[in-house]
Amino acid sequence: MRTPVLETERLILRPLAVSDAQHIFDSWTSCPVVTQYMIFDQHENVQETIDWLTFEQANYDNDHVYTFGLVLKETGELIGSGGLSWEDDCFYIGYILSQNNWYKGFAKEAASRMIEFAKNDLGASKIIGRHANGNAGSEKILHNLGFEFYKDITFSSFGNKKTFDGKLQVLNF
Ligand SMILES: CC(C)(COP(=O)(O)OP(=O)(O)OC[C@H]1O[C@@H](n2cnc3c(N)ncnc32)[C@H](O)[C@@H]1OP(=O)(O)O)[C@@H](O)C(=O)NCCC(=O)NCCS
């Protein structure tokens, strides 16, 4: 299915485009605090964000990749992104917000809508969340959404610059 536009009370979830690159780089992919626990490494220059968004644009029709920009309805600002990506035998969920938008319930709101999409539109029977130990916000969101501890893991970022001890949390439908 082509990545759709979804909606929550305060957010529009829409496909990302290369034209979002400069804003995203300035707002979160270049931020060491925001990217600390992410599976990608902090972007050193805007070209790295362009490369990522080029991948996302090329995968609008990929049934295993759904990435959404999170747009605040009130202001039209792109405040973060979230997604579902297929690994092995199920979708993994992820989310990231620019730091000035933390602690306002946006990640939980977006994740809840993506879970509903996975269940109702993609026919998913389970979703997994992966987080580093110490990423208390991510762990709390997953538990608030009904995820349960699945197993301890060690994982590295795509460029192998960071390695984390962490957890997989699972939500079975
Ligand atoms: C993790 C992240 C997405 C949380 O986003 P958020 O919009 O602030 O989260 P929410 O406001 O929906 O919070 C959900 C719950 O987690 C709690 N929480 C959020 N961040 C927290 C933190 N750093 N430490 C402890 N609790 C936290 C909130 O208080 C809230 O609890 P409540 O439901 O009891 O009120 C955000 O901090 C972020 O973008 N971090 C960097 C990227 C990242 O690590 N992504 C996840 C990778 S696995």
UniProtKB/TrEMBL annotation:
The keyword Kinase applies. It comes from the Bacteria. Residues 11-165 form the N-acetyltransferase domain. GO terms for molecular function: acyltransferase activity, transferring groups other than amino-acyl groups; kinase activity. Keywords: Kinase, Transferase. Transmembrane segments: none annotated. PANTHER family: GNAT FAMILY, PUTATIVE (AFU_ORTHOLOGUE AFUA_3G00765)-RELATED-RELATED, N-ACETYLTRANSFERASE DOMAIN-CONTAINING PROTEIN. This is Anhydro-N-acetylmuramic acid kinase. The lineage of its organism: Bacteria, Pseudomonadati, Pseudomonadota, Gammaproteobacteria, Oceanospirillales.
